[in-house]
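Please check this chain.
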Amino acid sequence: MNTLLDKTTEVVQARDVSFAGDRLCIELSDGRELSVPYKKIPWLKWLAKATPRQRAGWSLEPGGYAIYWEQLDDGVEICHLLGMESLN
């Protein structure tokens, strides 16, 4: 007999964003903090090329599911960062 397990997934939201050196730091709603070396992640090349002033111009999408930089016309979803195998 095959049985499907009911998995309840908590939706994790971004609460705050900061930069520390070459790392993008994201405070999550469950108390964790992600620290992402954005200059080493190929799909964040646009963020690495941005000026400090441009990087500081972020906003949270409604519900905190993503961070968006209007001036850069790009952003990143929290689920993509959480899905990465290694952030180091």
In short: The chain has one domain: 14-82. Residues 14-82 form a domain with the NE0471 N-terminal domain-like fold (CATH 3.30.2020.40). The chain has a mean pLDDT of 87. Strands lie at 14-20, 23-28, 33-36, 58-60, 66-69, 74-77.
